[in-house]
Amino acid sequence: MEAPHHHHLTQPPAIVAPMIPTPGDGLVFHGPLSEARAASLITRLTAEPRPRTILDLGCGRGELMLRLLSALPDATGTGVDLHAPDLAAGAATASARGLGDRVRFLEESATNTEHGPADLVLCLGSSHALTDLEPPAHTAAALVALRALVNPGGRVLLGESHWTRTPTLDELAHMWPDASASEHGYLADLTDAAVAAGFRVQWVETATLDEWDAFESAYLAACEVWLASNEDEKLRERVTTQRSRYLRGYRGVMGQAYLTLVAG
Ligand SMILES: C[S@@+](CC[C@H](N)C(=O)[O-])C[C@H]1O[C@@H](n2cnc3c(N)ncnc32)[C@H](O)[C@@H]1O
Fold first, then answer.
1. Fold of the domain built from segment(s) 35-207+254-263
2. Is the pTM of this model over 0.90?
């Protein structure tokens, strides 16, 4: 009698096309955020008054929201983003952690969203998702939108860019196309805008250079490893450009603030 698996052995091996990685593959948070800072944010944001509803705008994979929901067994969450693959990844992670019935990931714009108000609103690296205005006006407009989306006494966690000092012309020339010093304010401008929008500033913290280096490295690492033994001109160009933008452009000049805001 023929061995049941015999014919498999005689088939030619399947030709597997090498999977070209995408920058950002493997990131946990899509921004400069360490595990230690994430843990301390979760401690602060789950303290009294414990939120019952969380809204994550421009959520991506929604990792921080999912960790908050794990720490808040009575809470429910809604994530909103335009990027379907990240939403699907977030939903899969939610199911794997037993959170599937407490969270939804919605593929829609966060601009003028009707999913508020919530007790806790997250906006991490995605203030541009809340308004059609261009930088720098988008930050103040996003804060006004966030104020309308949070319940009185609730919290907003805003992760937002700012300049640590005035960028030089040479640094600006190495950043993204048309980068200009007017795109961002300083940290104090950000907190002023939060107060003007009706918040009190409970906590100010900024990503360290180590967090930035870890984020930028993790963003490109899978591509770099792949390019060490494969060739793809477009990817090589993209990776090289991104590293130069960071190291010659915004490293140490653009900061990332995490503001814990209380709705007055
Ligand atoms: C820098 S990522 C941050 C993702 C996530 N908050 C995190 O920290 O991991 C910015 C996100 O904003 C999303 N985004 C951009 N415009 C948007 C819009 N109009 N509505 C909803 N999401 C948007 C992008 O798809 C992207 O996932």
1. Rossmann fold (3.40.50)
2. yes
